[in-house]
Amino acid sequence: MTTESDPRVFLAAERTLLAWVRTSIAIIGLGFVVSKFGLFIRLLALQHQPVAQGQHSLSTGLGVAFVLLGSVSIIAATLQHRRFVATIPEKDLAAGYSANFTVSLTTFIAMLGICLAGYLLKT
Known about the structure:
With 123 residues, the protein is mainly α. The chain has one domain (8-122). It has helices spanning 8-48, 57-87, 99-122.
């Protein structure tokens, strides 16, 4: 057994978290597009004939569901990453690493997603 530090496991965990965050942001973006697509369809329909107000609620609900799914997956990935990093020996962590930054950034992104869901429900 060697006593040298091997940060590859830690760096792989960071890349995995980044992949989850990237995927979650894409899901949030898809939710926004789906939600606003219903508004686009409603505007097109208004050009031809008046449409009842509640007909775009399916796309809004589906879009909000995607946004919330993306936000929840960011939170879940952050918690899983934090638990995994806690099991890595101190010598294998990157020098000057602060788990607080990663957790703060991903939590902020998740909160923005939740705010976006609220905005989409409101409009």
